[in-house]
Structures are given as structure tokens and as C-alpha cells.
Design brief:
Blueprint (H helix, E strand, L loop, with lengths): L5 E6 L3 H13 L5 E5 L3 E6 L2 E6 L2 E6 L4 H11 L9
Antiparallel strand pairs: 1-5, 2-5, 3-4
Length: 86
């Protein structure tokens, strides 16, 4: 039997928050694994200003039946008002 995994890509404000979110979701057994890429450079517009910042990437691996619960948990505990979840 082949198990298809979904990858979820989320930008996070800092490494501490990425560890917190990743650990919460893995402990609930909603994902098989959480990977954190710590030093991604981001360039974006925020409140009329061009910003340059470091934002960790959290990559989560989950099965179809857990996808909705993972997305809901991320939205519940993430610090950003405007999330990037792919």
C-alpha cells in the first residue's frame, strides 16, 4: 500500500516559534515529521514599506485525512495575521 504524503510550507517569524508550532503538531500526531529551515531571507511589502527579514520555513508532512486539522492548528497558534501556508 502506497501512502501519499502532503507537504505543507509555512513561513514563521522566528526559530523559537517554528520549533513551538512544529512540536505541537507532531506531538498531536497530526504530522509524521516537521522540518525547519532556519535562515531563509524574505523580501516583502508590509504596511507600505519594503522589508527584508529572516523567516524560518516550517515544512510539515501529513496524510490527506489530517490535512484540515493541521491547517486549523497552524492558524490557531501562528503569530502572523496574514499567513503563508502552501
Amino acid at each position: 500500500m502506497v501512502i501519499i504524503m502532503n507537504l505543507i510550507y509555512v513561513t514563521i517569524s522566528n526559530e523559537e516559534e517554528s520549533l513551538y508550532i512544529g512540536e505541537k503538531i507532531v506531538k498531536k500526531r497530526l504530522t509524521a515529521c516537521a522540518n525547519i529551515i532556519s535562515d531563509m531571507k524574505s523580501i516583502y511589502w508590509w504596511e507600505g514599506n519594503l522589508e527584508k527579514d529572516n523567516e524560518p520555513i516550517l515544512i510539515l508532512k501529513t496524510i490527506d485525512e489530517n490535512l484540515g486539522a493541521v491547517m486549523a492548528k497552524i492558524k490557531e497558534i501562528h503569530s502572523y495575521d496574514n499567513l503563508c501556508i502552501i
